[in-house]
Structures are given as C-alpha cells and as structure tokens.
Amino acid sequence: MLKYVNTGIVFQEIPDEVTLAVNISNCPCHCPGCHSPYLWDDIGLPLTPGALDDFIAQHGTNITCIAFMGGDADPVGVDMLAQYLHEEYPWLRVAWYSGRQYLPARIQKTDFDYIKLGPYIRHLGPLKKPTTNQRLYRQTDNGQFEDITPRFWP
Q1: Exposure on the CB side of residue 125, measured as CA atoms within 13 A
Q2: Which residues pair with 139 in a beta bridge?
Q3: Which spans in 28-149 are helix H?
C-alpha cells in the first residue's frame, strides 16, 4: 500500500507547472546522499483516490499538476493512481519522480505526463546539474516522450 508523508506546492520540480508534490514513503532505493531519508521508512497515511480527491478539493485550480515523489515500492499502485487522476481530473497533469533507472515494464508510461527516472548519484548531481544521470521526460502531443532535463540547467 502506498503511503504519503506530506505534500507541498512546488514550482521547480516540473517546468511550467504549479505542482502539488506528494512525498511517498517506503522508498526502496536508499540513494546515498538522499535529501529525504525519512521517506525510506514505511510511515504516513494511505495514498488513495479519496486522499487525492481531498488534495484537489483543497487546492482546486491553483495547481496544474500532481507529482508522485517516490512510490518505487509499489509502481503499479502509482500507475493506478495516475490513471484515476486522468479519468477524474482530465485537466490535471500527472508526474512521477522515480529513483529507478528504468520504468518497470508493467507500467503504462502514457498514464503520466512527466516521468523523472534515475537514482540520485551524489557525484553526478541533481537535475539542475548538466552532469546528472537523472532525466525528466515530458509526453508530447503525439504520445512520445521527450527529454526536457536541459531546461533545469543554467
């Protein structure tokens, strides 16, 4: 079961979006130098469609995107929530920040408008460094995914 610890409105995680970031616990990646090691523990509240409905009721049209920050312990659960959001809130974009190098085969990537892949590797740096191994992809109008990582670089 997916659990979330907290949420916050962010402006830098997804370019051109006002994003509600949902921090998901029980992260199996345990990246050395992780900025949120508290998310390694299995803590928090259940992340359900009802919880998402509550977030959207609270923030309404002040947000344009919901980003699942983690969820690598249950990628199918993340995918199901992404499907739910697209069905119930078609105006809202959906993003997933995964610490995995590759998207699991059983995930339908077109359920997401944005996907970030790659573990944090300290000497390579985060998305804002041109040396990063992490990549952020955006789904285009034709269903393809383009790498928009360079948008983070100075």
Answers
A1: 9
A2: 145
A3: 49-59, 75-88
Query: Is 103:117 a contact under the CB 8 Å cutoff?
Result: yes
Kindly tell me the burial class for residue 131, based on how many C-beta atoms sit within 10 Å of its own C-beta (0-12, 13-18, 19 or more). exposed
Residue reference for tokens 């830098």: 12
Q: pLDDT band at residue 12, thresholds of 50, 70 and 90?
A: very high
DSSP SS3 for 88 = helix
Tell me the backbone φ, ψ of residue 44, rounded to 5 degrees: 105, -170
User: What is the DSSP code string of 107-122?
Assistant: S-GGG-SEEEE----T
Name the token pair of 82: 């992404």
Lowest mean pLDDT, pick from 16-20, 26-30, 33-37, 116-120:
33-37
**pLDDT 10s digits, 53-86:** 999 999 989 999 999 999 999 999 999 999 999 9
The first and second tokens of residue 19, run together, are: 């994003």
DSSP class of 39:
G
Kindly state the tokens that stand for 126: 């985060």
The two structure tokens encoding residue 53: 């409905």
Q: Which two tokens stand for residue 85?
A: 């959001």
Residue 10 predicted with pLDDT over 90: yes
